[in-house]
Design goal:
Elements (H helix, E strand, L loop, with lengths): L8 E4 L5 H12 L3 E6 L2 H14 L3 E6 L7 H13 L4 E4 L14 H29 L2 E6 L12 H21 L4 E8 L5 H14 L3 H10 L9 H11 L11 E4 L8
Parallel strand pairs: 1-2, 1-4, 2-3, 4-5, 5-6, 6-7
Helix pairs in contact: 1-8, 3-4, 4-5, 6-7
Organism: Poseidonocella pacifica
Pfam family, one: adh_short_C2
Protein name: 3-oxoacyl-[acyl-carrier protein] reductase
Length: about 260
């Protein structure tokens, strides 16, 4: 299938590693021009070099901090200056530390809300008018399966990513008539450093060996394994594609069947 992504301009947040990198690589493999972002300059350079060496799409990079002052304004201006605009925006952020709902510190909540929610909404608001004006655009927001089935001991993540679900659905209805889609991609247990950290935290909390915790986690997934970053990236690329133009306002799971709701 031709995804119609050749020469499309994609801005992918938090894309030096993990899920963001997986989506960026999948977009570039389809011929897109990708702008990588993150805080780790060395990782960004390495990722861009590897993408460019494959000779399909092109990759550039810029260091940014989602929690930094004027993050959205500066990044939007940079993307316009370097790429001439943005056709595809992939909103992806890191996750907060594990913890219970009853133990949420309001100061921590507000700081995480700035990085995980406000920055995403601000950046999207700055870029989506140009998408609407040209009659084509894709906004893909990576969140968590915790939106549909809250994950124990991830209260902050469940809370903040849930806020993005309401925003995404509302925005999708506002811009669908302009040829712009807005979807969310919900990972389950995809093998990343973040999942390794969560498994380690669970092992410590439960007082069990890490391998036992991982084995139990795999048994709870109908696919009986963790997902691959490449599998997740492929789903993301499709949702950003031309053939996916009639998919909007949706939350798509990539979880091996882990979420049991219909």
């Amino acid at each position: 299938m031709d995804l119609g992504l050749k020469d499309r301009r994609a801005l992918v947040l938090a894309s030096s590693r993990g899920l963001g990198r997986g989506i960026a690589e999948a977009l570039a493999a389809e011929g897109a021009r990708v702008m990588l972002t993150g805080r780790d300059e060395a990782a960004l350079k390495d990722t861009a070099a590897q993408i460019n060496a494959r000779g399909a799409g092109q990759a550039d990079w810029v260091t940014v901090d989602l929690a930094g002052p004027d993050f959205a304004a500066k990044l939007a201006d940079h993307a316009r200056a370097q790429m001439g605009g943005v056709d595809i925006l992939v909103n992806n952020t890191g996750g907060p530390k594990p913890g219970a709902a009853r133990d949420i510190d309001v100061a921590v909540l507000m700081a995480q809300a700035q990085a995980m929610v406000a920055s995403v909404i601000d950046l999207t608001g700055r870029l989506i008018p140009d998408m609407c004006a040209q009659g084509w655009g894709r906004v893909l927001t990576v969140a968590s399966s915790g939106i549909e089935q809250p994950i124990p001991n991830l209260a902050l993540s469940n809370t903040l990513r849930g806020a993005l679900a309401g925003w995404n659905k509302t925005l999708a209805s506002e811009v669908a008539g302009d040829g712009v889609t807005c979807n969310m991609l919900l990972p389950g247990r995809v093998q990343t450093n973040r999942v390794d950290q969560l498994d380690s935290a669970a092992a410590e909390k439960q007082g069990k060996p890490l391998d036992d915790v991982r084995a139990a986690s795999r048994r709870s997934i109908p696919a009986k394994r963790y997902g691959k970053i490449e599998e997740f990236g492929a789903v993301g690329a499709f949702l950003c594609s031309d053939p996916a133009g009639y998919v909007t306002g949706s939350m798509v799971r990539c979880d091996g069947g882990m979420i049991r709701s219909v």
